[in-house]
Specification:
Number of helices: 15
CATH superfamily of the largest domain: Metal-dependent hydrolases
Largest sheet: 8 strands, mixed
Organism: Thermococcus cleftensis (strain DSM 27260 / KACC 17922 / CL1)
Radius of gyration: 21 Å
Keywords: Hydrolase
CATH topology of the largest domain: TIM Barrel
GO molecular function: hydrolase activity, acting on carbon-nitrogen (but not peptide) bonds
Helix content: 25-40%
Pfam family, one: Amidohydro_1
Number of domains: 2
Strand content: 15-25%
Protein name: Amidohydrolase-related domain-containing protein
């Protein structure tokens, strides 16, 4: 049993001078720090100049794409894909994937992500690395059948899913059709049936490009969201990513179905020059989580950077300042992500998963320590992370324990 001491902040409350006590895989209690001795904890991390937050949930990643960081910078998106990404992906080996997945996961952990939701090829290798490093990981093997891309065969996607279903406490397999313009109706329906049978999440790219939306309209006479409705995927288990070319009716349908949209503003603005109107989507009641997407194009797997970008860009798309409160942005990176994945996480409460992050706030950019939500969204950065706890175990730490019992 151990404790993290600092100002405990989640989407519901701020508790100063708090001790978050971890026992086993869960949070046992949250008490005033001066009462901690009554609990007989073995180790204590943090102190007065620290902040304890729920683990940040990176709801859309491609961790192994750290291999491509910085490559093809400033090329148009299609040229970047055709000249850089696709040819290099064809050359992946299992050894290479393990190497770069490890680098990407270590980067995510070091910057405060306790959970990743990863969508890529060689999912089995990525899952093995994730389990070894101790990150909580939802992993899907990318599936496509409308384009010739052997790494994304549906057979391998379903094989991976069944291989890992119920196998690990940390790694949960998801179903990962690529996008609405690269997957057939039959494959979508097969995916929906398996999701219904097993309760699995379905993670896919959704209206991330104008070409995707136009292609779906031409082939199926509907929008990408309409297509998902036709195939039985429009429900609370759906996690769609990007949505930058969807209309308000589509967003309303997603909200009404209880689906989640993952917002990746850095990637959206860099690749497409546009993104969603976050204020409108939250007003519709849509569950919106946050994701870093790939280290190329975003540059870094840092959820604090993504929160800051989301808050700033929300003002631009709404055409006014203070469009989305910092507290709600913080909730997207924690509680809303947990909701998307069906986790009892995202809040600092007894009984919740002990997925926690300790931040060293003894830095100039944390002064004054008054508006904690603003500090976490607009001032904090991944390098401020001192300790990361996943499933009740310290999996990353660069600080010293303050006490041993």
């Amino acid at each position: 049993m151990f404790a993290l001491i600092g100002t405990a902040v989640d989407a519901e409350s701020v508790r100063r001078n708090a001790a978050v006590i971890v026992e086993g895989k869960a949070i046992r209690a949250v008490v005033p720090a001066d009462e901690l001795r009554e609990y007989g904890v073995d180790e204590v991390y943090g102190g007065g100049n620290h902040i304890v937050v729920p683990g940040l949930i990176n709801a859309h990643t491609h961790v192994a794409m750290a291999r491509f960081r910085g490559l093809g910078e400033d090329l148009p998106t299609e040229e970047w894909l055709e000249r850089i990404i696709w040819p290099m992906e064809q050359g992946w080996t299992r050894k290479d994937i393990r190497k770069w997945a490890e680098l990407g996961i270590r980067e995510a952990l070091a910057n405060g992500s306790t959970t990743i939701n990863d969508h890529y090829f060689f999912a089995n290798e990525i899952a093995e690395v994730a389990e070894r490093l101790g990150v909580r990981a939802f992993i899907g093997q990318t599936m496509m059948d409308e384009v010739d891309f052997p790494l994304a065969s549906p057979e391998e996607g379903f094989r991976f899913f069944r291989r890992w279903l119920g196998r690990s406490e940390l790694v949960t397999p998801v179903l990962a059709p690529h996008a609405t313009n690269t997957v057939s109706l039959d494959l979508f329906r097969e995916t929906a049936e398996l999701s219904e049978e097993t309760g699995a999440r379905v993670h896919l790219h959704l209206a991330q490009s104008r070409a995707e939306v136009e292609g779906v309209k031409k082939r199926h006479g509907t929008s990408p969201v309409g297509l998902l409705g036709k195939t039985g995927l429009l429900n609370e288990k759906l996690i769609g990513v990007h949505g930058v070319y969807l209309g308000e009716e589509d967003f309303s349908r997603l909200a009404g179905a209880g689906s989640t949209l993952v917002h990746c503003p850095t990637s959206n603005v860099k690749l497409e020059g546009r993104t969603i109107n976050l204020e409108k989507l939250l007003d519709l009641g849509l569950n919106v989580a946050l994701g870093n997407d790939s280290p190329n194009p975003t540059g870094i797997l840092d959820p604090f950077l993504e929160m800051r970008t989301a808050g700033i860009v929300a003002n631009l798309t709404a055409g006014k300042p203070h469009a989305v409160p910092a507290r709600e942005i913080f909730g997207m990176a924690t509680l809303f992500g947990a909701r998307a994945l069906g986790l009892r996480a995202g809040l600092i409460k007894p009984g919740y998963l002990a997925d926690l992050v300790l931040i060293n706030a003894e830095k100039p950019w944390f002064r004054p320590m008054e508006n904690l939500y603003s500090l976490l969204v607009y001032s904090a950065r991944g390098s401020d992370v001192e300790v990361v706890v996943v499933d009740g175990r310290v999996v990353y730490g660069k600080g010293e324990k303050t006490e041993k019992g």
